[in-house]
Amino acid sequence: MLSRDEAKQHYMRLSYELQHVSTDEVIYDNFKRRLQFVIGDVRDYADVCGSLRDADVVVNAAALKQVPTCEYFPAQALATNCDGPVNISRALRDHAYSVETVVGVSTDKACKPVNVMGMTKALQERIFIASNITSPRTRFVVVRYGNVLASRGSVIPLFHDQIRRGGPVTITSPYMTRFLISLDEAVDTVFAAIAEGLPGETYVPICKSATIPSIAQALIGDRGIPIVITGERPGEKLHEVLISEEEIRHTVRRGSFYAVAPMLPELVDDRSVDFIGMTEEYSSGHAPRSAEETRALLKGHGLLLELKESSSHGELLR
Q: What is the pTM of this model?
């Protein structure tokens, strides 16, 4: 686990050790454990080389992923989202490490990008795809998916916090839609790409979308909390796209996933020619879940806030 965030590493280490307080044994018994933690930065070539030396499979999830943040600090987004992948590719090219597979974690915002976050993640995809040619000993694949339910920085924790405070719940547009998948589905997409992906392919989970107002209303439930429209944020799209109209001509179905073939002719494989024949792009604006379906989805993943009675404070939110 390579990252520069020692706090998240520390809490992850504690969770794996099933500890409630930190101890010297937990902190310093690091390298005897199956899961090792290394403080470093994907932006630093030496840090990347040190981490790749004995690796078999690399999953690059390092990213600046907040759309407005990337709009205001595009150079920082470029450094993490593009220079980091370049460091991985360069290390494998220059040192011939025995890494079998590299998986680049991407986002629906990388498809037909209109914001810095999406543009830099789109470049990450192309950097890894092209690396199959410069580092042919390693297989580079990409996964691309939408919003992971209740992930850090996503809209559901924000809505939860606003509801706990008594509202209002703020949404940027009454027409906005987003693809929603669970954390398990996101991880399964990575596993599927590792197990089945051909060099240069982009794996996309087959999933449904929901409108942002239906998510907000499902979380609010019967509480008398208002919804306020605040307007779109810098770089925000009304609908996200997982597969563009250009890519659908090069997309095959593999079980619960779509696999988008690479554009580079050197990477075309005979096993990726049975294209699915989509007639329109794979957009979150097409047939989103109903309000009832959205509520059922959130309830099924334990994301609906429960009510708890308190004699002194009336109705509190847990």
A: 0.89
As a whole number of angstroms, the distance between CA 176 and CA 199 comes to: 34
Say which DSSP state 210 is in.
E
CATH number 3.90.79.10 is the correct assignment for the domain at 40-317: no
93-107, 164-178, 270-284: least confident range: 270-284
DSSP state of 273: -
Q: Quote the tokens at residue 193.
A: 């790409």
Joined tokens for residue 252: 């095959």
Q: Write phi, then psi, for 144 (nearest 5 degrees).
A: -135, 120
Strands 38-39 and 209-211: unpaired
Query: Which amino acid is residue 173, in one-letter code?
Result: S
Q: Which whole-number Å values give the CA distances from 120 to 53, 87, 104, 114, 291, in the listed order?
A: 26, 15, 12, 11, 33
| Cβ 304 vs Cβ 216: under 8 Å | no
Contact 161, 127 (CB under 8 A): no
**pLDDT of 134:** 95
Q: Clarify whether 112 is annotated catalytic.
A: no
Nearest to 52 by CA among 31, 38, 33: 38
| Catalytic residue, candidates 8, 32, 65, 109 | 109
Domain ranges of the chain: 40-317
Residue 241, classed as helix, strand or coil, is strand
